[in-house]
Design brief:
The protein is mainly alpha-helical. The chain has 2 domains: about 170 residues, no CATH class; about 170 residues, Serine Threonine Protein Phosphatase 5, Tetratricopeptide repeat (Alpha Horseshoe), CATH 1.25.40. The protein is about 60% helix and about 5% strand. The protein has a 4-stranded mixed β-sheet, with helices on one face. α1 crosses α2, α10 runs antiparallel to α11 and α10 packs parallel to α12. The longest helix has 20 residues.
Length: about 375
């Protein structure tokens, strides 16, 4: 359908029809995004939020399981998906049946001719009190983040028709924005996952400098970069989504603070899930992700969680779990444990002993390298 020039909304509609997908899942599949990328872009575009990929899954399956979502979430999700997506396009009859009358009214009613509704997370409650339900108007006004067009409160106002689709002028503006981005991306001279890698590395660098604003910008760029490898990026030359999540976790951990530590935990979990799902999971990557997860939990004072995530690594005899980088992480974590006198307990003492034992038995040097290393 992309080859035929179809739009993302058209693809989402067809995927829902042909494969019986719920609308939120259909939109995500039309964009080709995994759940972790939805969570990453959502959190980046809406600072202060902590959406996890697990929660994305729960919201996609509700009300047939999962968890109920809010109207605020639908508005923000529509902004995250872009391409003219509106909150009403992300729900179906099953959703509407289980929503509150107020939310159902906001998603199905059309504003009055002289009082167009501004359906945003901040105004949804007041709109519900004032929006009439017995009049129609072909123009609907919604807010979407953009760098051009009519702007209100840092966002561009996108006018939609009664079906929730952008009017012709908005399509023209969106096309121009897309062309501008294409011209910019072409000018960067960064082909395949290289930009994905560079932006993720930038986030870590800015975090080390304690520059949260720059970290957010770098992660935003990473979220929009291509994750598709080229023929020139075999093996380690490509950059995986798991590694990107792992870098994002490190960046948030370096910034510290409650919100960033929570984000560090979420990203480390995502990295672990991505690495585990690989066709041939690499033990080194899994160990690094688990240590990052343990570090974030330790910073939050959650010793039980630290032990839970370290157990698969500390109890393994695989040589890849005891390489120099992993041993280095184990020693650093052990040092941090010793400094947490506020958490002194049998659990902490046991973790410290396990880490010490782990570090005293590193992986053996491969045959033929010992002499070379000595010389």
């Amino acid at each position: 359908m992309r080859g035929l020039g179809c739009s993302i909304p058209q693809i989402a509609l067809e995927m829902g029809r042909r494969f019986n997908l719920r609308p939120r899942l259909a939109w995500r599949q039309a964009l080709g995004w995994p759940q972790w990328k939805v969570a990453q872009r959502y959190n980046t575009l809406h600072p202060g939020t902590r959406l996890s990929d697990h929660r994305v899954s729960e919201y996609e399956t509700w009300p047939h399981g999962g968890a109920p979502f809010s109207l605020r979430y639908l508005v923000r999700l529509a902004t995250t998906y872009g391409h003219g997506c509106t909150p009403s396009q992300l729900v179906d009859a099953d959703d509407l049946e289980h929503l509150t009358p107020t939310d159902r009214c906001l998603l199905t009613s059309v504003p009055s001719e002289h009082s167009p509704a501004m359906i945003t997370p901040e105004t949804s409650q007041s709109a519900a009190r004032t929006m009439p339900s017995n009049r129609t108007n072909p123009d609907r006004v919604l807010e979407y983040r953009s760098s051009s067009g009519t702007v209100q409160g840092g966002r561009r106002i996108v006018r939609c028709d009664a079906r929730g689709m952008p009017v012709r002028e908005e399509v023209i503006v969106a096309a121009e924005e897309s062309a501008q981005f294409h011209r910019w991306s072409a000018a960067t001279n960064v082909s395949g996952t290289a930009l994905f890698r560079l932006a993720s590395q930038q986030a870590r660098i800015h975090a080390a400098r304690q520059q949260p604003g720059e970290v957010s910008q770098a992660l935003t760029l990473a979220a929009t970069a291509s994750t598709e490898r080229t023929v020139d990026e075999p093996g380690i030359f490509g950059f995986s989504t798991g590694t990107a999540a792992y870098y994002a976790s490190e960046a948030h951990y370096a910034l510290g603070g409650t919100a960033d530590l929570n984000a560090a935990v979420d990203w480390a979990r995502t990295a672990l899930e991505e690495f585990t799902a690989e066709t041939q999971p690499k033990a080194l990557h899994l160990a690094a992700a688990r240590f990052d997860l343990a570090l974030a939990h330790l910073a939050r004072g959650e010793l039980d969680a630290v032990g839970e995530h370290l157990a698969p690594v500390l109890g393994s005899t695989q040589a890849e779990y005891r390489t120099v980088p992993v041993i280095g992480r184990a020693r650093s974590l052990n040092t941090l444990l010793a400094q947490r006198t506020d958490l002194a307990s049998p659990t902490l003492a046991a973790l410290s002993e396990d880490l010490t034992e782990f570090c005293t038995h590193p992986a053996p040097t491969p045959p033929g390298l010992e002499t070379e290393a000595t010389t």
